[in-house]
């Protein structure tokens, strides 16, 4: 990363799902962060050229829910302009990953069963030369909370699939050399899962699918895996600074 102050624009879909650990890492490295809270009808600045990177976060809505969330339509146009037309550095996390996938004309499908919990992500051979996942283990635990996936995503001239899980093939994909879709959450902190479980919609959805035992399971797994995940998040961020910013 050069000495020039880096400006990051962040699109946020719900108060619960913020940058978490990534925010601390950005601040520590003196990046300027502009967070646009779309759920509060905040407008994305017209001049996107001033930003060095866009990060699009997760959320409980689906990419097709444009009637319930009218701002989704404009958000997709903004993602296309920034990541595809301008070819500027872009990271899409969870819902952000799916929005990038749809902008790239992939279909977003419901999973047979939502992927919620700490599960393995396996890196593909395509990741061997990828700068963002340099120094990552070939298999690692990550936190997942998603109902949908970017369906039938595959390697082609502009797209490389970099990571998968047993349930979701496109856990990580890259468009050209500037835009990444990341389906899982490396950015979570100690209080993240508890705060999500305090949300009635999140908790009810979890209980409906998995039952009460899943709550204790998540808390126990967090104790086991969180520290290792945060180390990986810091490696990811260091790679991001060196390769995209």
Topology summary:
Layout (H helix, E strand, L loop, with lengths): L6 E6 L8 H8 L3 E6 L15 E4 L14 H15 L4 E4 L1 H9 L4 E16 L15 E12 L8 E6 L7 E4 L3 E4 L9 H6 L2 H11 L2 H31 L2
What does this molecule look like?
The model has no long low-confidence stretch (mean pLDDT 96). α1 (21-28) runs parallel beside α6 (213-243) and α2 (71-85) packs across α3 (95-103). A 9-stranded mixed sheet has the order 2-1-3-4-9-8-7-5-6, with helices on both faces. It has one domain (7-243): Rossmann fold (3-Layer(aba) Sandwich). Helix content is 33%, strand content 25%. The protein is of the alpha/beta class and 245 residues long. The N and C termini lie close together (5 Å). β1 (7-12), α1 (21-28) and β2 (32-37) form a beta-alpha-beta unit. It contains 6 helices and 9 strands; from the N terminus they run βαββαβαβββββααα.
Which key terms come to mind for this protein?
245 residues; 25% strand; 33% helix; nine-stranded mixed beta sheet; single chain; Rossmann fold; alpha/beta
């Amino acid at each position: 990363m050069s000495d020039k102050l880096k400006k990051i624009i962040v699109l946020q879909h719900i108060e619960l799902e913020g940058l978490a650990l990534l925010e601390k890492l950005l601040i520590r490295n003196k990046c300027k962060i502009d967070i646009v809270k779309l759920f509060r009808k905040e407008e994305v600045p017209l001049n996107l050229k001033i930003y060095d990177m866009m990060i699009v976060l997760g959320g409980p809505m689906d990419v097709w829910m444009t009637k319930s969330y009218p701002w989704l339509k404009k958000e997709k146009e903004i993602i296309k302009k920034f990541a595809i037309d301008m070819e500027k550095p872009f990271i899409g996390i969870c819902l952000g990953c799916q929005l990038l996938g749809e902008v790239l004309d992939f279909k977003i499908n419901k999973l047979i069963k939502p992927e919620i919990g700490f599960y393995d992500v396996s890196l593909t051979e395509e990741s061997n030369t990828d700068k963002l996942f340099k120094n990552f283990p070939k298999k690692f635990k990550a936190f997942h909370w998603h109902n949908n996936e970017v369906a039938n995503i595959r390697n082609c001239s502009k797209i490389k699939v970099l990571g998968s899980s047993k349930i979701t093939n496109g856990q990580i994909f890259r468009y050209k050399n500037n835009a990444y879709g990341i389906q899982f959450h490396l950015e979570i902190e100690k209080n993240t899962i508890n705060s999500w479980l305090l949300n009635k919609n999140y908790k009810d959805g979890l209980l409906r699918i998995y039952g009460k035992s899943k709550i204790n399971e998540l808390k126990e797994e967090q104790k086991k895996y969180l520290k290792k995940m945060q180390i990986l998040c810091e490696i990811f961020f260091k790679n991001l600074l060196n390769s995209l910013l």
